[in-house]
Every structure is written in C-alpha cells, then in structure tokens.
Amino acid sequence: MIIGSPFLITRSFSLIQGHTGCAGAAACYEMACGGSPVDGKSPVAHFLAPLVKLAKELGLGDKDGPTKDEALKLLIEENVRSQVRNIVTSETIQNIWSKGKNGTCFCQLRARIPSKSSLL
Length: 120
Known about the structure:
The chain is mostly helical. The protein has six helices and two strands; from the N terminus they run αβααααβα. Helix content is 52%, strand content 3%. Strands 1-2 form a two-stranded parallel sheet. Helix 2 packs across helix 3. The longest helix has 21 residues, at 68-88.
C-alpha cells in the first residue's frame, strides 16, 4: 500500500464480500430445500428472506440441483453479485454518477485465504 497516493485520496471504494462457511447461506439453502423457516418475526428473517428467495430462484433446493457444497458456493457468489446490483442501482449511487462523479469504483475480487492451521 502506498500511503498518500493520489489514487487512494481521489477514489472511493466499496467492498461487498461473501465468505465460505457462511451459516446464513447454509440456513437459506436448507430453507430453499424445504427446511424449517426462520421465525418471520425475527430480525434475522428480514435479512435472510432475500437470500432464501435467491436460492429458490437458482433452483438450489431442487432434487436434481447441485450438491450442497456446490449450491452454497453458488449462493454466496450470487448473493454478492445481487448486493452489488442493489448498490449500483440505488438512488444514492445513481445520483452521484448522474452528477459526473464517477470516482466510486466497484470491482470483483476473489481470494483464497489459507486456513489458520496452515499459517502456523
């Protein structure tokens, strides 16, 4: 990292991330497969509902769908893409861009972080 770089000063970055082993994605996958839904009055249900819907739209709960591991990987990746679409189509970002302020950058990064045990 270069401290004081004009690039870092003049650009605004947003990071939207997903992660493997996501318990929320696993719960949504299970619900898409017909498992017990989260209590609809729970604050968590508000955040999980769109991901359950996405899992169903992707056919991840179908009997002839992908394996659970494949489905979770796809669900996490598609969830990140969905959140990027939500942000770039938001009124706030559209207003910024309509004023010619194109300094907000969205890009896709993929990283494989080694497990803690492999770092020791």
